[in-house]
Amino acid sequence: MAGSVNKVILVGNLGKDPEVRTSQSGQKIVSFSVATSDTWNDRASGERRERTEWHRVVIFNDRLADVAERFLRKGRKVYLEGALQTRKWTDQSGQERYTTEVIVERFRGELVLLDARGNQEGGEAPSGDGSRSDSYAGGGGYGGAPAGGNAGGWDSPGNSDVDDEIPF
User: Biased-composition ranges for Low complexity (predicted)?
Assistant: First the structure.
């Protein structure tokens, strides 16, 4: 293979409100955690099982950092695109540690707010009539989806009882 690809796409919910800090050069940096969950029916017991993975996300894009700071809150559902990056650091006891993060960079990355504004508690919302979700792309694009932020598909409310068993 001539090249390689480092791209991460996540759809999940924020675990806590974003943390905002500023670099020495004045660039805004926003970090937060996103939970993604996988659910299935256990074949042996018939019970519904769930596994949750936590992903640390860091935004270095000033425009997306502003959006994240203003509109993201704990529990908010988001779609994001970025790249994996592992960094090495030393803890207080002098031990070397490694952290792998999803990095949303200045020109490569996207953040889309998926849930409806009406589901948000607190915080301010973008101006508009509230009839659609807002999305913000790395290039500053602005688009939307139908009310509720869901146009159907695999994550639509009507498909919540999908049986994971293969029919043959």
Answer: 127-136
Q: What six digits make up the tokens of 60?
A: 């270095």
Instruction: Give the CA distances from residue 52 to residues 35, 45, 114, in Å, rounded to whole numbers and listed in that order.
Output: 6, 20, 19
Q: Which amino acid is at 76?
A: R
Q: Contact, 54 vs 66, CB < 8 A?
A: no
Q: How many CB atoms lie within 10 A of CB 94?
A: 6
Going by the DSSP 8-state scheme, the letter that residue 162 receives in this structure is -
Strand partners, 39: 50
pTM: 0.66
C-alpha span between 78 and 56 (Å, rounded) = 13
Q: Three-class SS of residue 119?
A: helix
